[in-house]
């Protein structure tokens, strides 16, 4: 597109220059020739009264002076053939002038002009002026060079302006294309440059509005799913406790299995909704963790759980999307509520890492992990766990260039430590 615009502008400027520069160059040469011939004619006319009335001795110094001052040759041919001033051949044009006819013609090396002077007692005389080619084209070459230079400057200026215009159009178009590709890949944080020229700016603003609307709809969907999950988990926990309280082991296992299936479906719905968010690969861990802890604090109050919080003020940028980090925190806190009795205290700690990023710790005073269990494997766990929660946290840590570590804090329970790297510069 850029090359096509430059080619179009170059062709247009060249056509305009050709249409004006060539006639102007011809006019310059014509004016130069006319000026030289007019000067020669005026010189000859100034000598006419002298040649018509004065004698030879009076004419000779005047004609010689006129020849010296003129860039061409000035001669006076008398009726008897005597030549005063510059030497001059007795050409056919001179013969014609002696007969009383003034004329001019092209001659080798220039232009020959003769002016017949009549009325002298000795007969007709001729004033001959020879204008060389150098005089006829004086200043023409310089004017042509100036005209050519001006044409080049105009062409270069036109191409420069066209290049800047084409660059702005191409850059704006490329930006729109790149943003469209980012949105197609799910990065809804991408935005086009709304200051693009003309109609491209309108398209950019419309695309940004569309991306914003899609982000808003997806955010509403995720919040609805999260709210639904929050409402469902509490009765599910109650059902699990009722199932565990049954005296018949088979009946208890059957009902617990059903509860686990519903729990797995709810957790999967949360994960899927979070991963459709399409945010950029960077999030403020301080803001996200604080928001999710406030969300779960309501359920903690309902279940008589004390919460210990030590959250860095932030911002703490980490290399994962806000949606993934929210899903991770929800999974860790959801596990606390799902696998510890009501009234079990827990704590959340968030601090910056020395190498950049953040360190998140979630610990509780519950029963801890079953012996020999690997709860970070998807769908594999023990103690009634679905195996999805810690798997979400592990994959979040992997995607953020960090690690997930499980341990037991002093006094028992479970401690999950999540290392999250900083986003690339």
UniProtKB/TrEMBL annotation:
Transmembrane ranges? none
Enzyme Commission code(s) on record? 2.7.13.3
Principal subcellular localization: membrane
Q: What is the lineage of its organism?
A: Bacteria, Bacillati, Actinomycetota, Actinomycetes, Pseudonocardiales
According to the record, the residues making up region (Disordered) are 366-390
Query: What Gene3D superfamilies does the entry give?
Result: 1.10.287.130, Histidine kinase-like ATPase, C-terminal domain (3.30.565.10)
Q: What is this protein called?
A: Signal transduction histidine-protein kinase/phosphatase MprB
Q: Which organism is it from?
A: Pseudonocardia nematodicida
Q: Which InterPro entries match?
A: 2C_sensor_his_kinase, HAMP_dom, HATPase_C_sf, HATPase_dom, His_kinase_dom, HisK_dim/P_dom, HisK_dim/P_sf, Sig_transdc_His_kin-like_C
PROSITE patterns tied to this protein: HAMP, HIS_KIN
Keywords, A to Z? ATP-binding, Cell membrane, Hydrolase, Kinase, Magnesium, Manganese, Membrane, Nucleotide-binding, Phosphoprotein, Protein phosphatase, Stress response, Transferase, Transmembrane, Transmembrane helix, Two-component regulatory system, Virulence
A Pfam family it matches: HAMP
Q: GO terms for molecular function, please?
A: ATP binding
Q: Where found?
A: Cell membrane
């Amino acid at each position: 597109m850029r090359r096509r615009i430059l080619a179009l502008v170059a062709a247009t400027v060249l056509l305009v220059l050709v249409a004006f520069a060539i006639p102007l160059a011809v006019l310059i040469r014509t004016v130069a020739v006319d000026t030289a011939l007019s000067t020669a004619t005026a010189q000859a006319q100034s000598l006419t009264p002298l040649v018509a009335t004065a004698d030879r001795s009076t004419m000779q110094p005047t004609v010689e002076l006129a020849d010296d001052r003129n860039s061409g040759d000035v001669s006076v041919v008398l009726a008897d053939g005597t030549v005063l001033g510059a030497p001059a051949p007795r050409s056919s044009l001179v013969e014609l002038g002696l007969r009383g006819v003034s004329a001019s013609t092209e001659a080798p090396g220039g232009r020959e002009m003769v002016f017949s002077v009549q009325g002298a007692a000795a007969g007709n005389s001729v004033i001959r002026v020879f204008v060389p080619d150098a005089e006829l084209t004086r200043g023409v070459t310089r004017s042509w060079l100036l005209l050519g230079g001006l044409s080049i400057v105009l062409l270069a200026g036109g191409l420069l302006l066209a290049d800047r215009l084409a660059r702005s159009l191409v850059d704006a178009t490329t930006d729109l294309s790149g943003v469209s590709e980012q949105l197609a890949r799910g990065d809804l944080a991408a935005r086009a440059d709304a200051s693009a020229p003309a109609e491209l700016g309108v398209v950019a603003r419309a695309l940004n509005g569309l991306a914003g609307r899609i982000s808003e709809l997806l955010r509403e969907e995720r919040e609805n799913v999260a709210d639904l999950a929050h409402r469902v988990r509490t009765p599910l926990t109650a059902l699990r406790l009722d199932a565990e309280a049954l005296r018949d082991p088979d009946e208890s296992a059957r009902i617990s299995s059903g509860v686990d299936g519903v729990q797995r479906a709810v957790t999967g719905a949360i994960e899927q909704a979070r991963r459709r968010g399409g945010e950029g690969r960077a999030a403020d861990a301080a803001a996200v963790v604080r928001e999710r802890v406030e969300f779960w604090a309501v359920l903690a109050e309902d279940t008589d759980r004390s919460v210990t919080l030590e959250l860095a003020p932030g911002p703490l940028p980490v290399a994962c999307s806000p949606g993934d980090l929210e899903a991770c925190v929800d999974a860790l806190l959801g596990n606390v509520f799902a696998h510890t009795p009501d009234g079990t205290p827990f704590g959340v700690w968030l601090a910056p890492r020395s190498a950049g990023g953040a360190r998140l710790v979630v610990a509780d005073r519950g029963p801890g992990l079953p012996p020999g269990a690997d709860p970070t494997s998807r769908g594999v766990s023990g103690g009634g766990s679905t195996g999805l929660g810690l798997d979400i946290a592990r994959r979040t840590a992997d995607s953020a260039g960090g690690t997930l570590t499980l341990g037991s804090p002093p006094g028992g329970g479970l401690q999950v430590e999540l290392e999250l790297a900083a986003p690339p510069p």
